[in-house]
Structure formats: C-alpha cells, structure tokens
Amino acid sequence: MTKDILKLYLVLETKMLKVPLGDFVNSVIKNGVTAIQLRDKGMTAREQFETGEYLVKLLAGTGVLFVMNDRIDLARAVGGRVVHLGVKDIPLLAAKKAFPEMVFGYSCNDENDIAMAKYADYIGVGPAFMTKTKEDLRPVIGPAGIAKLIKRTGKPAVAIGGINEENISQLKGTGIAGVAVSSYICASSNPSRAASRMRELVEKL
Predict the structure, then answer these.
(1) What is the set of domains in the chain, with CATH numbers?
(2) Could you read off the pLDDT of 160-205 as tens digits, one per residue?
(3) Beta-strand (E) ranges in 43-189?
C-alpha cells in the first residue's frame, strides 16, 4: 500500500449525490481523488453489490483504489480486494487469517485500535473534527490526537472526520498520508471543483 494512493480518499455515500453516480465518479477522479470507499450505510447488500460492481468497472484502468466498507464478501463478489474494517466489524486479525490475499484498512480512535492495526495495511485515524456523516461517532480526537496515534505505528494513515477546506490546514505536520472526506465532495453541487480544491489543499500539508 503506497502512501500516494491514500492522498485524497473519498468515502462515498451515494444518497448525498446531486449528480448521477457515473458523472460524479468520472469528475472526481479527474480532479484528484485517489481512492473511493463505498460505504452507503442503510442500503441493502444487493444495492451495495450493484453499486460496487459498477464502481469497479468505472475505476478499471484509472489507478484509483476501490475499497469496500465492512463487507469482505461484497468486496470479493464485485472483484475488489481492499476492505476497510472498524471495531464493530469482523475482527481484523480473523479477517487477515481467513483472507490473506485481501488488503485491509482499519479505523483507529485510541491506543487499543493502534495495537490491533499492526495487522492492517493502512489505517484511518479520527475523527479529526465533529461530523454528522457518521451516526455512531467515536470521540473526536482532533489533529493532536491523530498525530499522537500515528507516531505509534508505521502504517500509512488517512485522517477522517469532518474535514473541509476551512479546517484541513490544522492537519499539517500530523504525519498523515492523506485525508478521507465524504460530505464535502459527495454533497457538493460541483463535485469536480470540490475534489480539485481538496486535492490542492492536501498537497500543502
């Protein structure tokens, strides 16, 4: 897992989109998004499968990483090999033992998570700031907390949680490889401009 592929990591919630999914994806990958995680909380497994299958086809040959949130079975079914797990999902170590060929990301919020993350290929660290995108939000740890946790691991890391153009500069010097964003791009009426702006700001970190 190279750090560059995590530079602008989009957590996709299709219900937020104001433009058709195909147009959205094509526009954001042309404007700096390097990875797309399909989260789509609240959708059925069938809906996630169909969206995931479509995304894999759209991203083929682009160099943009496709990530499935939570579901190893769905990732494998659509031809993906990267899955992002958290503390409420199948235990990371069990997943790694059962599917050694898969690539795993892991959400970290505290020291216990960092200890488990030694089995991950990359980590997401946060929440950086308050966010309404995720309902079961863990305690906000802020840029200082993110920096502290990253120092405990050699894994490539993305900061996540409420990141936008007003606060992203606060993440400078934390050691992150990139940022994960959702609503800032997904809910934008001009996602290509939002992606371009966020990539511009990430490059300054």
Answers:
(1) 3-202 (3.20.20.70)
(2) 999 999 999 999 999 999 999 999 999 999 999 999 999 999 999 9
(3) 65-69, 82-85, 103-108, 122-125, 157-160, 178-181
